[in-house]
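Title: Prediction job returns without error message
Component: structure pipeline
Severity: low
Priority: P3
Assignee: unassigned

Description:
Job completed but the reporter wants confirmation the result is attached to the right record. Sequence as submitted:
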Amino acid sequence: MNYFEFYGIPVSFKVDEAALRKQFYALSKKYHPDFYTLATDEEQAEALRLSTLNNEAYKVLNDFDKRMQYILKEKEILGEEGKNEIPQDFLMEMMDINEPLMELQFDFDEKVYNKTVQQLKEKEDTLYNSIADIIENYSDEASDNTALEKVKSYYLKKRYLLRIAENLDKFAP
């Protein structure tokens, strides 16, 4: 049973967070191990398993990036860590951002720092806008692998930008 089935919601990159939270609390109450202290060992083990599943599912479904990764892995579009390739054209574009990042390591310049932060934000916005329609209107029944491949590309590029941002934060004033 996947996380979406467990929560009784459709597979989607966008979820109703209030409804998700409400279902999480309902299932937390239903499967909390404290309510099974007088049950058989098997029932206690099952309650613990379902409680753990509820917590894991909520952590994933409540976070956009984790939810995206989960869907892509469930659809077997995203491979294991380290087995996915970022498009070369994107990596070439990132040279313009990586060069100032290397300079900041040796000689901090606030103007260069601010410009690089702005470039990252603009790049992330541009990337999201290129797949926003897919994210907003995704339907598990009507989707094809082409759309999911675009989401995969976005996901990998976004992670790359996140690593750059994390490195940039090391030099923040």
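Comment from assignee: result matches the submitted record. Residues 78 and 152 are 7 Å apart (CA to CA).
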